[in-house]
Structures
1.
Amino acid sequence: MSIAWYLAVSAIVFTLGALGVIARRNPLVVLLCLELMLNGANLALIAFSRLWGNGDGQILALVVMTVAACEVCIGLGMIVAINRRRLPIDVDELRELQG
Amino acid sequence: MSATTFAWIALALPLLGTLVIALGYRSLPGRSAGWIGTATVSLAFAAAIGALVSLQNHAPAHRQLTSTLWSYAVTVGVDARASILVDPLSVFMLLVVSGVSALIHLYSISYMGSDRGFARYFSYLNFFVFSMLLLVLAGNFLLLIVGWAFVGTASYLLISFWYRRTTATHAGIKAFVINVAGDAGLVLGTYFIFKHTGTLDFLRAFHATGAGAFGGGSDNGDLVAGCVLLLVGAFAKSAQIPLHTWLPDAMEGPTPVSALIHAATMVTAGVYLIARMHPLFERAPAAQDVGAVIGAATLLVAGTAALAQVDLKRVIAYSTMSQIGYMIMGVSVGAYAAGLFHLMTHAFFKALLFMAAGSIIGALAGAQSLERMGGFRRGLPFTYASFLIGGLALAGVPPFSGFFSKDEILLVTGERGGWHWALYALGYIGALLTAVYTFRMVFRAFHRDPVPEARELERGHLHHADVPRNPITGEEEDADVGFPGPRHAIAERAPPMRAAMTLLALGSIGAGLVQIPHVDFVVDDFLRPSFVDSSLYVTHTRDWMLVMGLALGTALGLAGIAIAWRVWVLRPATAARLRARARPLYELFAHAWYFDELIEALVVGPATAAGRFARDTFDRRVVDEALVGGTTALIRAGSAAVRAAQSGFVRYYAALLMLGVTGVGFYFLLQS
């Protein structure tokens, strides 16, 4: 099987994630879509790892997963905090950083 | 102790007095600040006598001693040391300055007794004495400039001593600005001399000049430029044309200040400077001629201006300018000993005149106008006697001191021959004017019908103004700090004033006797070691010149007194008639030859206009609006643009980020 298929799937997953991040307003869904983007990247890493026959890409994928776990930890923590303060669960409403 | 040690002590004492009074004024009870000030200056005078005695023990050829306290900056090409030069000239000045200062300190204890700024006054006055002694003792150009500038500062502080009088503060600013112009001249002149001689030290610079640092001949361009710039400094400090307009205004200061700074000591610094720099000036005859001509012009202009002033202190101020004109002319034509001799006698009789004037002003509760005076002869007998002695000395009537010193200057001037005869003639015209304006003051203040204040005084009651007023503008004042104190002093009732005036009166009578032609030559002989390298020092004078000069001086002095007697006592209407007949001349004299207006038009007006242009056009339009305003507008516009990108939408940031990464990715793809 050509590497192209793997990369195509990876790109589709990544693009879906990216579109989700941009389009959706629920922070929970935005986090999920971020995970999609990371996993799309992971897929590409592993596919290349197989193509070249060494384990570097797989190790990098493990690192990405670790980072993703951390990021989800923080992201979910923030969502819980937002919820506790009775703030709207909507990223467009949370715009105190406006200059 | 050596002479230099005595000189250092004389220098340190007034500084000590300044510091003690300035730092400890809170814990000094009553008038002790005044007594401390008087004591330090008196001790400085004692040290000056010590220096004199010690110096006379040396052989005449070894009477130029230098002493260095520390080296300030000594490297290749620069030798700046804190060094003093003790020679007969500086010891002479040391004696005159510290002696007269001590007496004026004593006088001030009574005169300023009720002033709220009593301690401040004495710390300033001691600071002045320190500065003046630094000036005359300086052994190099650096210390000379420091002393010169300090003296100007002290003068400023004391002119505007009554700092709530706007007239006084304006006069102080005027004096300071003109003096700084002179300081600039002194510094630039020093530069020219330093450039060629390579040393700041006086004796070395003179030696280098003698050895040909400015070429073999005379009138080297740089030397003349340097000497003329030194003269600018001398003219500003000594109130010579055209830098003289500050001196009449400086009469806003307390009267003892006028006596000390603006008559006896500071304003003679220019005379000292020219005498001290004589090895340079003698190689630059062009600069000497400038000094002589300006001195002669000043003595005439000031002498005529003094005829038409109504403010008593201003008359004496113009008289001071005129007398310093004699001295400047004298030292510029080589009459060094005569000029310095006149400096000494003038210090005595002019300080005495000012002190007596202060006593009259005290009797009038602060008023200074001659219009308000008259008939104080019986009310103020001691003041009258003092004023008369000072006036006779000033008018040059024998055997008072001014007679000998003034005539000697003119004698030496005449002996130079050539066009100096014109200066000689002007000097004698000035002598006649001197006698007239001096006795105009005497007759108007002391003779004629007594004014109410004088009658009150004859009955034993000192006039006291209900509301103190500014003597110039008539504005109402109070007697708090920043204005004169509530009580005025007259010499008849204040022993310190009386003591100081008695001593000065003795000096005014007797000081001339130290140098009588064909009898004794104390000043000549004493100063000779300082002028050993001079080719002009004490030229041979012919006897017929001497006799003619003395006869002419006596005759003109007595004639002037007779004219004044005729105009202001015998026929008091004469003055008004003369005034009406020669109106333009009177206006010319009353406005002091319109120098104030001239300087206003030539210097102050353009400078003000330039300043206004700089403020309104350059500063406001270019700096404020274009440079500062332009920068802020630029930054504000830039930050507004950047701020617009910060919308706060997380999704928008994410989209921008992706767009950016995609753009970068595409860029590299297309590159490869």
2.
Amino acid sequence: MLRVKNLHARVAGRDILRGIDLSLDAGQVHAIMGPNGSGKSTLARVLAGHPEYEVTAGEVLYEGEDLLAMDPEMRARAGVFMAFQYPVEIPGVNNAYFLKAAMNTIRKHRGEEELDAMEFMTLVRGRMQELDMDETLLNRPVNEGFSGGEKKRNEIFQMAVLEPKLGILDETDSGLDIDALKIVAKGVTAMRRADRAFLLVTHYQRLLDYIVPDVVHVLADGRIVRSGGKELALELEDRGYGWLEAPVG
Amino acid sequence: MSTSTETIEQLASREYKYGFVTDIEQESVPRGINEDIVRLISAKKQEPQWLLDWRLTAYRVWLTMKEPTWANVTYGPIDYQNTFYYSAPKKKPTLQSLDEVDPEVRRTFEKLGIPLDEQKLLSGVAVDAVFDSVSVATTFKEKLAELGIIFCSFSDAVRHHPELVRKYLGTVVPYSDNFFATLNSAVFTDGSFAYIPKGVRCPMELSTYFRINAKETGQFERTLIIADEGSYVSYLEGCTAPMRDEHQLHAAVVELVALDNATIKYSTVQNWYPGDKEGKGGIYNFVTKRGKCQGVNSKITWTQVETGSAITWKYPGCILQGDNSIGEFYSVATTNNRQQADTGTKMIHLGKNTKSTIVSKGISAGHGQNTYRGLVKIAKGARGAHNYSQCDSLLIGDRCGAHTFPYLEIKNSTARVEHEASTSKIGEDQIFYCRQRGLSAEDAVNIIVSGFCREVFRHLPMEFAVEAQKLLSISLEGSVG
């Protein structure tokens, strides 16, 4: 589904990614771990097409297409969803309205019929229950006045409604208490399907107790320095990142 | 990054849709202003002597006045002797029915989306159509008359209801009020008049649609609305003008009077021609609008969406004279390209326990300059007065400006006055967030702007809210659930 080859990227004149290679198949969950500043979030944002990040070398194929040539909205419409590390507030814009506009834009792109308000609400209420979300959040402005946990849950809720093929979670677990973390993990696990893949960017192993990854990659200084099974995450938990500083293999 | 900047620029440089000219035979008075012109206008309208005298007094006061320079706008000198003060389509001045409206004029209004055919009209809206200096049609007159509601052109009101006009004209905006209002008092041509009798709730929206067509002509309309005890009326005003290279002056006066327990809602979508990208042409919109909450428990709400005009100079205010009366001002003002707006409100608290609310949203794009200027005055006798003001500015791009000048004059220690202000830029992060959810950059800007204006739009009557959102090229924020 996703092939990342020798990806280099920079932001504000600083090189952050220095040659990432990654291959993610449909049905898989890959975790990207690494110390602060290793480039984890940069990778997520480059894949989503954040305009501040400049790709200086390499290529990314998404379902065989050149992902980097696509505008951010075209990536989204093609099924790439990123749950933001810091979800943005849009004052005055009703959360449900925003999501309905997004969903219908994506449906239109896929040649599907747009949902009317009733159909949309039925769909949305179901998803909200699954994520144990307060329905009043629907009628509040997007992320405005949301607690940190509510914002993160709102991201997962949006993902559940938009049903992407590739879900990228950028440190969704940071700042969540254990109950919220469990709910988020439950939501993601429920979405796992043979034709869907996830990339989990996380600093802590904790999230991986609840969403079990197929592959764990460790990033250091803009490169993947080690990849392995879920045991690798546990090892990191025990030993920290220090022992991985020099590239292996 | 470039994509969203481009979108912002596209949005800011959108073409003006209403810039066509109607080719029609015009009747006008000679250029310039002097006592003879004032007499000529009055004679053309077959006005009574008292009104001519009123005009002449105003004219003589105007000669002693200076054009104000305190507003935060810049423009070249206006040659008042090079303007036409009266222009009308050549047709009989009074129409027996709507069918007699000149077909060209009728087509003009149809092109603007204002059909003058009662069957085609939105059933809930009665329209008075003003073309240059005269009212050309008023719809649903008879239906309203059954309830005792008078809705007609100002000229008709002078002819048929002179006692009402004489009683209220100039009681809210006196002829000596300010340079532009005084000029208007001398040369005003037409406008709308509405009177809602005691205890009547006006069953439809009353609406006036103003169109400037003639070249080098100023439009000086005058509107007077009186809501008698316990009545309610919602009034809408819309306006457009052709694209012309020279600036045109629009100096209107609106007076509202609300008696005991009466409510007036006055909404404006102002879309005069704003001039081109370089600031060539466009309307100078120098307007005086004021309402008087004369009676106890009366209420006046101004809602305005100002998207047009090269320069907007406008401060719809409320004089809160009756005890427990309420004044509200909700405003969205946008300036693109070289547009300048200096707009806000005046809330004058005189009665006890009077309350005012001000919500002002300024949007600046291109090289636009947007100023909020507001006065909250609480007189000595106004015990228990309360004002809440909120002024928010949104900047699109980095060549525009937003300015806020709130003035407070408080002479009673029991007053409560609150003021909040904010300035924000549409962030690349907000646009990216929307795009990551599949929305185009243009839709993202529209959605963000519509969210910013939401508090004001929800005070507009439904049909107008739709037009206003379209005007800001915003996809409609429908209510879900």
